[in-house]
Design goal:
The complex is a heterodimer. Chain A is 78% helix and 2% strand. By secondary structure, chain A is mostly helical. The longest helix of chain A is centred in the middle third of the chain and has 32 residues, at 153-184. Chain B folds into two domains: 2-102, Helix Hairpins (Orthogonal Bundle); 105-133. The longest helix of chain B has 32 residues, at 66-97. Chain B starts with a helix and ends with a helix. The model of chain B has no long low-confidence stretch (mean pLDDT 86). The chains are: A mainly alpha, B mainly alpha. Chains A and B meet through helix 6 and helix 7 of A and helix 2 and helix 3 of B.
């Protein structure tokens, strides 16, 4: 059982190596990629069933017991995020295979994509602060390559901003690890908790804020989000889709993990997180409303939605964290879907500018349906997954007595709906006015069916979250109970 | 000794930050390198005072803390890889643009454009009013 925990990291790395080996044949690379990710999805599903059944499990890598060795920990939260992520990685890989462009033109796409998957796996499963840094670097390094893959002028420009900002965050992270180690003498997350509790108050708050800044840059919370809407839209659609779905959410995951596990209950920065969450939601959605490019608009929504997850964490209650967990899962699915649809629209209409597209509802009814479902879900209209997630958060907010930030979140929902209808009205209604892009002419019927098929599959996943909302909410409540009761995690790691 | 090392880290961070804030890509990359060195110095410093090499005999009490050394090796390798990538990216940017400046933000340019447009309109309006008078 515990050996299974290493597979979501090892399999993609192995797949990446094989993929480089068969670099001459794109077909062989595709088979390797899809087979690897399918098996990672299977492993993660088994892992979720096992972990839900038996509770948090730890793997001491190389037989060195914690806190000396490297520890991988699978708890409900980690495996839920992992499963949602790898399903999206698989779907987007199929999408990428169907789309003419990045995947077809570059030998490096498949290996780097698989390394990205390994990085995401390591980031959620690791039980060690330094290893979290390494995981982020693995993940970001692959993202640097993917975002600049075409080597176009705008990609190099925005890629540079993205790389430098991410590097600044990484350097800060490295410094915080050095300081934490100097103060406590350990980097194991389970071992750190009690030792951080013994530190003086000022030092502890310093660490908490440093880590919020580090993960805040990665998660794009206010006021550290400005790099995101600029850099994401320039990458090829599959790359933007997977970044939108995964990278910021892994940042939020790291925030949840470290803030709950490292800091004792009385020194958690709940108020700070709630204020930041409210501002993130409002500024993000206002940015989205002013945009006229479909991908840029959706990029601002990534920022806005991060606020909801941080809000759930900011309550620091079981219900709040449960809401945040289900929100993370819902966002991973819905954000990926919306960017895939955005890519399909760009492909069909030859541009992403809202003013220059129109009438797609009549020309492409399937696309219209595929957009409408996740868009309504994002705004939180029942009966979609967004409604379930928002209801959980609002409920938790009332329970915690934080009416102000809940009010803000509901107001932002209305603005979200407004900007989603703006896309709908501009792109799908109005007079038909489209000319297929050059890429669309290159795409084959088979490629098109792969793209539409994978998008439909993720829409189905999002509908499934809504259909099985009860069991999934119960699962995330159990996950949140494990997160809030840190002794579960510590016992699993330190004395199994 | 610790004070000296802390000062070294501080100076590295100050210089690194200064260089990163500039608009020249070559300076920016050197800045990132300096920041990385600063972080590495802090990690080495976190291990406390030096001592005998660990695990190769001698008394356990005299060992230097081996963990920060392991961490810092990993960090150095990662920084090395990242800087190599940055250099490649900067070279690409130089090939495309013929200089090594960070380009203007698209949104900034749009805002600037609109501001200039509005200023021009305003100037026209004032000129027209004066002509009427």
């Amino acid at each position: 059982m515990s050996a299974l925990i290493s597979l979501p990291i090892l399999l993609p790395l192995l797949g990446a190596a094989v993929s480089i080996g068969v670099g001459r044949s794109r077909d062989a690379q595709r088979i390797v990629g899809v087979v690897t990710l399918t098996s990672v999805v299977a492993v993660s599903a088994v892992l979720l069933a096992r972990v839900d059944d038996q509770g948090t499990t730890a793997l001491q890598v190389g037989g060195w017991d914690a806190p000396i060795g490297i520890t991988l920990v699978a708890d409900r939260l980690a495996v839920m995020v992992l499963l949602a992520s790898v399903i999206m990685l698989l779907a987007v890989l199929v999408f990428a295979i169907g789309q003419p462009g990045a995947e077809r033109n570059h030998v490096g796409f498949h290996p780097v994509y698989l390394v990205l998957s390994a990085g995401v796996g390591l980031a959620v499963l690791t039980g060690d602060l330094f290893n979290l840094f390494v995981a982020f670097e693995v993940m970001l390094m692959s993202s640097y390559v993917l975002i600049t893959l075409g080597g176009r002028r705008d990609q190099v420009r925005s890629g540079m901003t993205y790389v430098v900002i991410s590097l600044m965050a990484s350097m800060l992270f490295l410094v915080s690890i050095g300081l934490v180690y100097a103060a406590t003498g350990t980097v194991n997350l389970a071992d750190l908790g009690p030792k951080v509790a013994e530190l003086p108050d000022g030092l502890r708050s310093g660490f908490a804020v440093l880590l919020i800044v580090v993960f805040g840059i990665k998660a794009a919370i206010f006021p550290l989000f400005f790099w995101l809407p600029d850099s994401y839209p320039t990458a090829p659609t599959p790359v933007t889709a997977i970044f939108a779905g995964l990278l910021t959410k892994v940042g939020v995951y790291a925030l949840i993990r470290t803030q709950t596990l490292l800091f004792p209950e009385d020194s958690r920065p709940g108020e700070l997180l709630l204020v930041v969450a409210g501002l993130t939601m409002v500024i993000g959605v206002l940015g989205a409303i002013t945009q006229y490019d479909i991908k840029r608009l959706l990029s601002f929504h990534i920022v806005s939605q991060i606020g909801y997850m941080v809000m759930g964490l900011g309550f620091f209650t079981v219900a709040g964290v449960a809401g945040a967990v289900i929100y993370v899962v819902h966002q991973i699915v819905v954000k990926t879907t919306l960017f895939m649809v955005g890519g399909l629209v760009e492909l069909r209409a030859g541009t992403g500018e809202l003013d220059r597209i129109g009438g797609l509802a009549r020309l492409e009814p399937v696309l219209a349906v595929l957009y409408l479902l996740p868009a309504l879900s994002l705004a939180g209209i029942p009966p979609f997954s967004g409604f379930v997630a928002k209801l959980a958060l609002v409920d938790a907010g009332f329970e915690a007595g934080q009416y102000a930030v809940v009010g803000v979140s509901l107001f932002v929902s209305v603005l979200t709906l407004f900007s989603m209808t703006k896309i709908w009205a501009n792109v799908f209604w109005e007079v038909p006015e489209v000319q297929p892009s050059r890429e669309a002419e290159l795409s084959t019927a088979f490629g098109r069916s792969l793209m539409v098929g994978s998008t439909a599959a993720v829409v189905a996943v999002s509908l499934a979250i809504a259909a099985w909302a009860g069991p999934i909410y119960d699962l995330s409540t159990r996950a949140a109970e494990d997160v809030m009761d840190v002794s579960v995690y510590r016992e699993a790691v330190l004395d199994p | 000794m610790t004070t000296l090392m802390a000062l070294t880290a501080g100076v590295l961070f100050a210089c690194g930050t200064y260089l990163v804030l500039g608009r020249q890509l070559s300076r920016l990359i050197i800045g990132i390198g300096l920041l990385g060195h600063g972080a590495n110095v802090i990690i080495v410093l976190a291990g406390g005072f030096g001592g005998e090499p660990a695990f190769v005999g001698g008394d356990v009490d005299d060992f230097a803390d081996p963990l920060p050394q392991a961490l810092v090796l990993t960090a150095i390798v990662i920084t090395f890889g990242v800087i190599a990538f940055l250099l490649a990216l900067a070279y690409r940017s130089w090939v495309l643009n013929d200089d090594d400046h960070v380009e203007d933000d698209v949104e900034d340019l749009r805002i600037l454009d609109e501001a200039l447009h509005r200023a021009a309109e305003e100037a026209d309006r004032v000129a027209a009013e004066e002509a009427q008078r």
